[in-house]
Amino acid sequence: MKHRRGKRFPLYAVRDKAVIVTGASSGIGYATALLFAARGARVVAAARSAEPLVVLQQQAQAAGGVLITQVTDVTDPAACRALVDRCVSEFGGVDVLINNAGISMRSLTIETDVAVLRRLMEVNFWGTVHCTKAALPWLLKSPRGVLVGVSSVAGFHGLPGRSGYSASKFAMHGFLESIRIEHLPDGLHVLVVAPGFTRSGIRTHALTGDGREQSETPRSEGKLMSPEDVAHHILRAIRWRKRNRIVSFEAQFVALVQRILPHFIDWLIYRSMAKEPGSPLRERAVEDAANRVDSREDVASPEE
Hints:
Blueprint: E1 18-21, H1 27-38, E2 42-47, H2 50-62, E3 66-71, H3 77-91, E4 96-99, H4 114-141, E5 146-150, H5 163-182, E6 189-194, H6 227-239, E7 244-246, H7 249-257, H8 262-274, H9 280-300
Parallel strand pairs: 1-2, 1-4, 2-3, 4-5, 5-6, 6-7
Helix pairs in contact: 1-2, 1-6, 3-4, 4-5
């Protein structure tokens, strides 16, 4: 079914659609795979860790859903092709690809190994590229193919202490928007979803400057949006063929106002991130203040 100017598509139903969800071992990916299976989609849930996928499959099947799993490292192009091949062999094609696999970081750029920044790009950006390249021919064969990238407000405005994460999400945005325009005549639906801070393990597993996981979250997770809420937003955005879905009010505010008052948003984000427990911004501010005091004392002290 080709798209023509002025022609409106009916609302999209995921029932009986073949859907791939990456990063499905926890958080948004887990909740999204479970929700789509509950709504009648035929889901292939992918992640690096096998054990959470087994639990996910059991939970989906207990609720009457159709969900199979595939252990996949999205940084490996061959693994991404195998993931798509599994979906095609089991369900006859690919109707929806949800690129959700991702990792974060928490470190000032000046204190971060380049290998960490490269790792962020490999998972968040190149993982999206590998899966999309493998699935795109099948999405175009689908009468109403859907390509989704789960991004972040960090893809609209840079976040201090998360430069590699922001860079990877900006890159994802540009990649997916280009595909959207390339395939305007084909009716391919390309959706970028940008949740705000969500209750998940992404901050626990965020990389520090030397590449180790920080192993704790700097946020009060109980006060954050649930992965299940984000999953419902993704489902509704697909149903209504949205091009962007910025989920939280805070993310919507940043994405809108940064176009008008970028310097104001810079300081707003700086102050918000500096309030986090153990924030590298706060630690640097304390060090800078101590250095200024030492400098003044050196100037005031008489020479011996």
